[in-house]
Amino acid sequence: MLQGQTAVVTGASRGIGRAIALELAKNGANIIVNYSGSEAKAEEVVGEIQDLGVKAVKIQANVADEESVKQLMKQAIKEFGSIDILVNNAGITKDNLLMRMKEDEFDQVIQTNLKGTFLCTKAVSRQMMKQKAGRIINVASIVGVSGNPGQANYVAAKAGVIGLTKTTAKELASRNILVNAVAPGFISTDMTDQLSEEQQESLLQLVPLERLGKPEDVARVVRFLASEDANYITGQTIHIDGGMVM
Amino acid sequence: MADVFEQVKSIIADRLDVDEEKVVLEASFKDDLEADSLDVVELVMELEDEFDIEIADEDAEKINTVGDAVDYINSKS
Questions:
Q1: Where is the Carrier domain (chain B) (predicted)?
Q2: Which of A24-33, A122-131, B62-71 has the highest average model confidence (pLDDT)?
């Protein structure tokens, strides 16, 4: 399905990013496993991908730093010769009530989650324009649509990603670059495991399907958006949330 | 100078799909050659590759006419 294509997945060492990297690899894409801090985990993902019979390389880069991002994309092109798919997945949380949230907590989340998406998109757009083809898939969040107490920074960043997705889609459509977002709901990852049992319980009451999503549920939609099957879809945000927000 | 202009002219004519005789030094990409802003970005990218130079975003924004491009390339090489 994606044979011979190159996918750059940011924040691919864990959670949803890892599942996306593996899913794209299963469908034949070679993968650049970007990570920020978890080198050992990234190495594990590389090993798992190589076991699937495709190529994988891990590259450390901080997506919030322009120079670091430029190097990431340059190295990716050097390794595999093209970038056909970019998945902007790298994200962090620094939850706090608005009244308690420090400026620094706000800035850091915006820097990684929103500016990181902008920088990576900008850095690959040149290559994709030359190729006259490309897919960019941004991992937003359902809270970017609905809002969520305690996550002013994260929600602002993710809502920003959805807006960025629409603008990028419009700007690059004439060059056959398709840009979409996915908005995962309550997905079982390290990030959600930090929530207390009570918090998890009360959140589940908001989910019509009455269960947590799996990283693979998100990964399969990303694979669809990266594939030929999705070649008339751009600028959309697909909710993967068990019906939480309609 | 003439060489650079000839080379730039053929790249522009090719990229923007216009007749070479329309590509004069005074021609504005957007007003005279019917390029949209993405076309100009692409053109700058192609000129970078062709002449093996790097055109910073700030400089690229100032390239509005064929002459601007030729002058910029001459100043770099």
A1: 2-77
A2: A24-33
The verdict on pTM exceeding 0.80 is: yes
Cβ of A171 within 8 Å of Cβ of B38? The answer is: yes
Smallest Cα distance from B46 to chain A, Å: 9
Query: Degrees (nearest 5) of the Cα angle A136, A142, A145?
Result: 95
Of A40-44, A214-218, B12-16, least confident by mean pLDDT is B12-16
Which residue of chain A is at minimal alpha-carbon distance from B44? A126
Q: In what order do the strands lie in the sheet with A85-88?
A: A56-60, A30-35, A6-9, A85-88, A134-139, A177-184, A237-240
pLDDT in tens, A230-246: 999 999 999 999 999 99
CB proximity A170 to B under 8 Å: no
Binding residues of A for NADP(+): 11-14, 62-63, 89, 154-158, 187
Whether the CB-CB separation of A116 and A9 falls below 8 Å is answered with no
The CA distance from A129 to A133, in Å, is 7
Domain B2-76: which CATH number of 3.40.50.300, 3.40.50.1980, 1.20.200.10, 1.10.1200.10 = 1.10.1200.10
Model confidence at B1, in pLDDT bands (50, 70, 90)?
Answer: low
Nearest CA in chain B to A171: B38
* A174–B contact, CB cutoff 8 A: yes
Q: Cα separations (Å) of A130 from A2, B37, B45? A: 19, 15, 9
Question: ipTM, 2 decimals?
Answer: 0.78
- Residue A172 C-alpha, separation from nearest chain B C-alpha, in angstroms: 8
Count chain A–chain B contacts defined by CB atoms under 8 A: 11
Q: What is the DSSP letter of A213?
A: B
User: Is CATH 3.40.50.720 correct for A6-237?
Assistant: yes
Catalytic residue among A35, A80, A106, A154: A154
